[in-house]
Specification:
The complex is a heterodimer. By secondary structure, chain A is mostly helical. Chain A folds into two domains: 100 residues, Orthogonal Bundle (Rna Polymerase Sigma Factor, Chain: A), CATH 1.10.1740.10; 100 residues, Arc Repressor Mutant, subunit A. Chain A starts with a helix and ends with a helix. The relative contact order of chain A is 0.10. Chain B is mostly helical. Chain B has two domains: 43 residues, no CATH class; 183 residues, no CATH class. Classes of the chains: A mainly alpha, B mainly alpha. The interface between A and B is large, with 64 and 53 residues.
Chain lengths: 218, 290
């Protein structure tokens, strides 16, 4: 019935969890043909990424900017062509433009460094349930990356969070892939130096909250 | 724990190189000897959102603070936009252009009215603006040809009823709005853009112009505006403007702007009646029987 009516979305939904990238490419096609379920799949995968990426540019306004970006994504979906990898790049490009518009219109400077000590305090103070810790540490991790100079923060987040390769990230940023690699590399070095200087285990609680370590938390 | 720290720090400092950075950025497992633990874990935590769409996870709270249960914040709005985009027939450009046409008509009317009244009011205000208004009229009338009918000179003025009355109305509306501090300036600039542009581009000039026009009218018609103001203006040799611009309002706009209908509200009471000495020497406002 409905599966027969929407074969592509059913297939996308069924297999999206096994090989996300490949099958979300199917979802991209289905969504372009007007399939609502497929569009929801894309949204659920990409929106959390966009939110984290946007925090490097607009900090607390990430949700508003992402909402604007999705209006445009939804509207222009039909004119997009490519697989899921390029879809993420396309979405990031749109989100980035909206974020820069937002900065211009609010005359605000890009978000600057949040004192890491604040984050450490917050992370250390959270000793509740496992998922709360995970959420806090994820927040703190993004905030720490977002505190890098913006070109470095964007390069790192586009690679790590949006899951783009250097070429696609370069297209989002209007730079060559080599420039993106360099910016990301500098960002990582800076983060490594930060850990070195502050003592990593107390900086964020991040070192204790890797996926494996998390299971042992109480 | 802290006893271990110095060893690791030293290793971090040595270990990070471009190749390693590239590997961990790409999500590949890095050589544990080469990749600093803290950095790898930081990126791992950053990369993984608490999965909002995992059905078995139930009500998890994601990094973004969004609700669980499969749906995440903003989804319905995005889906609604998606459905709108895919259900809407591609008829929007035409509607837009019709709207634009209608707007252009209104603007044309206002600009033409401003020009007519500038001639009518004469004196200091109009003299300064003649050439600007002239070019405005030429451009606007040409661009909105379907909306504006140029009658041959000397045609009966029955329909050419657009002029001072409407400009007085525009000016009254402008002064009323612009003198209210609660009305946002951009709104005024947008609403009265044609008027402001016609009198020199600034609100101060528009204010001076409108005050002047209303003072002049009040002086000319001390008992209040007559029920019908003249639409056609006499030739004014000092102004190189067309002395008559017979304009026929399209039926759809006849309600939107005052024409030769009786002028409903007379000039605002609070405007001071100027002494004759403060007025321009010559006020070329015609008599109705002209």
């Amino acid at each position: 019935m409905s599966r027969a009516a929407k074969p592509s979305s059913a297939r996308a939904a069924r297999t999206a969890r096994q090989r996300p990238d490949v099958d979300l490419s199917v979802a991209v096609q289905a969504a372009q043909a007007g399939d609502e379920q497929a569009f929801r799949l894309l949204f659920r995968d990409v929106q959390p990424r966009l939110l984290r990426y946007l925090r490097a540019i607009v900090a607390d306004d990430a949700e508003d900017v992402a909402a604007e970006a999705w209006l445009q994504i939804a509207r222009d979906m039909r004119s997009f062509s490519g697989d899921f990898d390029s879809f993420r790049g396309w979405a990031a490009t749109i989100a980035r433009h909206r974020a820069l518009d937002h900065l211009r219109s609010s005359q605000r400077r890009p978000s600057s460094a949040v004192p890491v000590e604040t984050l450490a305090d917050r992370a250390a103070g959270e000793d509740t349930a496992e998922h709360a810790l995970a959420a806090v540490s994820s927040d703190a991790a993004i905030a720490l990356i977002a505190s890098l100079p913006r070109d470095q923060a964007e390069a790192v987040l586009l690679r790590v969070v949006m899951g783009l390769d250097a070429e696609t990230a370069g297209r989002v940023l209007g730079k060559r892939a080599g420039a993106v690699r360099t910016a990301a590399y500098r960002g990582l070095r800076r983060l490594a130096r930060h850990f070195e200087e502050t003592g990593a285990s107390t900086a964020l609680g991040v070192t204790r909250l890797g996926p494996a370590a998390l299971k042992d938390m109480r | 724990m802290s006893a271990r720290r110095p060893d690791r720090v030293i290793r971090i400092d040595r270990a990070i190189d471009r190749a390693t950075a590239e590997r961990i950025l790409g999500g590949s497992p890095a050589d544990p000897q080469a990749a600093p633990d803290d950095l790898v874990r930081l990126l791992a935590v950053a990369a993984v959102a608490a999965p909002p769409a995992a059905p078995a996870a139930g009500q998890r709270v994601t990094a973004g603070g969004t609700a669980g249960g499969g749906e995440i914040a903003g989804e319905e709005a995005a889906v609604a936009a998606f459905l709108r985009a895919h259900l809407a027939p591609p008829a929007r450009p035409r509607r837009d252009s019709m709207l634009k046409t209608a707007f252009a008509r209104v603007l044309t009317m206002k600009v033409a009215a401003a020009a007519l009244a500038a001639v009518a009011a004469g004196g200091v205000w109009a003299a300064a603006q003649t050439s600007a208004l002239h070019s405005l009229i030429g451009g606007a009338a040409a661009s909105a040809r379907p909306a504006v009918t140029r009658s041959p000179a000397g045609s009966p003025p029955a329909k050419a009823a657009y002029g001072i009355a409407s400009l007085a109305g525009v000016c009254m509306a402008y002064l009323a709005e612009s003198e209210q501090p609660s009305v946002p300036r951009p709104k005024i600039a947008h609403q009265f853009g044609a008027l402001i542009a016609a009198v020199g581009g600034t609100e101060a000039k528009a204010g001076a112009y409108c005050h002047g026009l209303l003072r002049a009218l009040r002086h000319r018609y001390p008992a209040g505006l007559p029920s019908h103001l003249p639409a056609r203006l006499p030739a004014d040799p000092s102004a190189p403007l067309p002395t008559s611009l017979p304009i026929t309002l399209p039926p759809s706009l006849s309600a939107a702007l005052p024409t030769s209908q009786p002028v409903p509200t007379i000039l605002p009471k609070r405007l001071p009646i100027p002494s004759p000495a403060s007025l321009p020497p010559r006020l070329p406002i015609p008599h109705p029987e002209q």
